[in-house]
Automatic annotation (TrEMBL):
Taxonomic lineage of the native organism: Bacteria, Pseudomonadati, Spirochaetota, Spirochaetia, Spirochaetales
One Gene Ontology biological process: L-methionine biosynthetic process from homoserine via O-succinyl-L-homoserine and cystathionine
EC number: 2.3.1.31
Binding site for substrate: K165, S194, R251
Gene: metA
InterPro entries referenced in this protein's UniProt entry, alphabetically: Class_I_gatase-like (IPR029062), HST_MetA (IPR005697), MetA_family (IPR033752)
Annotated protein name in UniProt: Homoserine O-acetyltransferase
Main localization of the protein described in the UniProt heading: cytoplasm
Length: 306
């Protein structure tokens, strides 16, 4: 089944070209089913690219998914196309004031990880969304900095600076083999990482509410959950497409930043070669598993979420 998005959204044509199932709002209104309602708090500077990446994965399931994009009204994006956020996004404050509920909510990463949380200009608004999600979304997936922010907000778990940027594609092991999120996964899977900070594993493991479902020696905790998967914390970027790390690498080089070549990404660590994608299948499976879990568990009447 398709995801429902506006026809004018730039991602619509890109996904149609990839033969991802998408449906326009007018067609969806003639279907007598309740789609899953998924909100996306898109904090990434690559606004449109991130939309495409997440929608590509959310559109690969037999479920119809109704997408709502949320923005931080207290932050002015310098990277979105002119008028894009006004046209396709709703402010988080409005979502809260309207009492909107979601089957699933995604909070992305953001390029602010070296700042203390309280110094991020939209922290108060994001913290309100994180608080609101507890009783207004059945399951919330927090990604990268979004995971660190929510772990700090919910549990007071600090982030820790890394000696150098964790950058590349890394293997991860699964601790919870019977987790619905890892149904169909291999014993080891690869996932991109791109961050300057990390979760405090000892602090996380000390909280009985949290379960570390996946981790690795090189990257630390990859996935932690709470409240029977109603809170999901992902430190990496399964949603990344084939060239995302390449673009980040060349951007940092161009800006004169100290950046090592992304690990396990280019053949022979040769940046002149096209990267090899080895995480795509698990990315699709992970998001499909999440949607299936949400579909099975969420109340039919969203107002019943507590």
């Amino acid at each position: 089944m398709p995801i429902k998005i506006p026809r004018a959204l730039p991602a619509y044509n890109a996904l149609r070209e990839e033969r991802v199932f998408v449906m326009t709002e007018d067609r969806a209104e003639h279907q007598d089913i309740r789609p899953l309602k998924v909100g996306i708090v898109n904090l990434m500077p690559t606004t449109v690219d991130t939309e495409i990446q997440l929608l590509r994965l959310l559109g690969n399931s037999p479920l119809q998914v109704d997408i709502t994009f949320l923005r931080m009204g207290s932050h002015e994006s310098k990277n979105a196309p002119p008028g894009h956020l006004d046209k396709f996004y709703i402010s988080a404050k409005e979502v809260i004031s309207l009492g909107m509920h979601f089957d699933g909510l995604i909070i992305t990463g953001a390029p602010v990880e070296t700042l203390p949380f309280e110094e991020v200009d939209y922290w108060d608004e994001l913290a309100a969304v994180i608080d609101y999600s507890v009783k207004s979304a059945w399951s919330t997936m927090h990604i990268c900095w979004g995971a660190q922010a929510a772990l700090y907000r919910h549990y007071g778990i600090p982030k820790q600076p890394l000696a150098k940027k964790l950058f590349g594609v890394f293997p991860h092991k699964i601790n919870e083999r019977h987790s619905p999120l890892f149904r169909g996964f291999d014993d080891e899977f690869l996932a991109p990482q791109s961050r300057h900070t990390s979760c405090d594993r000892d602090a996380l493991a000390a909280r009985p509410e949290l379960t570390i479902q996946s981790e690795s020696v090189e990257t630390g905790v990859f996935l932690a959950t709470a409240r029977d998967l109603r809170e999901i914390y992902v430190t990496g970027h399964l949603e990344y497409d084939s060239l995302t790390l390449d673009r980040e690498y060349r951007r940092d080089l161009g800006q004169g930043k100290p950046i090592a070549i992304p690990r396990n990404y280019y053949p022979g660590d040769d940046a002149s070669q096209a990267p090899v994608v080895r995480w795509r299948a698990h990315a699709h499976l992970f998001f499909s598993n999440w949607l299936n879990y949400v579909y099975q568990e969420t109340p039919f009447n969203l107002d019943d979420i507590k």
